[in-house]
């Protein structure tokens, strides 16, 4: 059964409001959802968030700008310089070498 994060969190919120523990839910819900369900630590984290009276089910915005790599620039550089390291590539595009390696 495919479920998104918000559906899992809604299920956890339901059990939180019923007074169940995070550990109980982490052990029982995989029977229904399979291995797709959250791990025990994630369940505990969400129950902690609910205890602080934050009932939002969406992810918080993260700081930093998501890396957007320009495919045209990448192609141009690779055609001009066949033997280039990921770090040199990253310097030319002003991104991290990890972003280059993942692309």
From TrEMBL:
One of its GO terms (biological process) is DNA integration. One of its GO terms (molecular function) is histone H3K4 methyltransferase activity. One of its GO terms (cellular component) is site of double-strand break. Residues 5-54 form the Mos1 transposase HTH domain. InterPro entries: Mos1_HTH, Transposase-MT_Hybrid. Signal peptide: none annotated. PANTHER family: HISTONE-LYSINE N-METHYLTRANSFERASE SETMAR (PTHR46060:SF2), MARINER MOS1 TRANSPOSASE-LIKE PROTEIN (PTHR46060). This is Histone-lysine N-methyltransferase SETMAR-like. It comes from Glossina fuscipes.
């Amino acid at each position: 059964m495919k479920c998104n994060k918000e559906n899992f969190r809604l299920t956890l919120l339901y059990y939180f409001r019923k007074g169940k523990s995070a550990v109980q839910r982490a052990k029982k819900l995989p029977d229904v959802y399979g291995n797709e369900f959250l791990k025990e630590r994630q369940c505990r984290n969400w129950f902690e968030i609910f205890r602080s009276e934050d009932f939002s089910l969406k992810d918080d915005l993260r700081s930093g700008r998501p890396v957007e790599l320009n495919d045209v620039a990448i192609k141009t550089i690779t055609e001009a310089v066949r033997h280039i390291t990921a770090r040199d590539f990253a310097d030319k595009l002003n991104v991290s070498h990890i972003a280059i390696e993942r692309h």
